[in-house]
Amino acid sequence: MDKQSIDKKDLEKQLAAKAAVKFIQQNDIVGLGTGSTAFFAIQEIALLLKNGLKIKGVPTSEHTAAMALSLGIELLPMEEVKSIDITIDGADEFDTQLNLVKGGGGALFREKIVASLTKNEIIIADSGKLVTQLGKFKVPIEVVPLALNYVVQQLGKLNGKGEVRMKDNSPFITDNHNIIVDADFGLISDPAALSESLNRIEGILAHGLFVQLTSKIIMGKGTETIIYAGN
Q1: Model-wide pTM > 0.85
Q2: Average pLDDT for residues 89-98, to the nearest whole number?
Q3: What's the Enzyme Commission number for this chain (predicted)?
């Protein structure tokens, strides 16, 4: 990928982040996403703090927590939060029905808990993340290690091929001390049905299909933003 296309993607992410933070209100509890796109939102939130905004953040990963604290954002432990006013996070893929694939950064379990607690889940993305049908990006699945063989067998019954995510020649370990299986289901005709099937497999802590969890998606495209909103 050349530098020009990288700069275009970053510009689109930044435009989406700037539009998303406008929905944050004084004294909100704000879910802080994980990944390169959410990085821009956290930076924008830090700028708002300098201008007098008061919020408390709930991070979706240890990496996000460290970044937020370095920028002066006060954090709340996820286990103590009963509801979150607004969350700004990214996605690896999305469609216009607000279905997502998330978890490329490995934080999908915490991202899904935060999304489930959130009244207004806003996803920000560059235009390259929009697809007509989910599935080009493999579905990340966080698996309890002792259940790995069973889970991979069950994915096969769903016509999915699962591979353990590796990092530095060892299995990638999540913040929750689990492993990630990246599952290829091909193009997904019914994300809700596949999500339900994955929910029924013992040993899966969380999967990267996010269905009916998003209130709006803000996509940067060129020098503009496009908003996809639910009913």
Answers
A1: yes
A2: 97
A3: 5.3.1.6
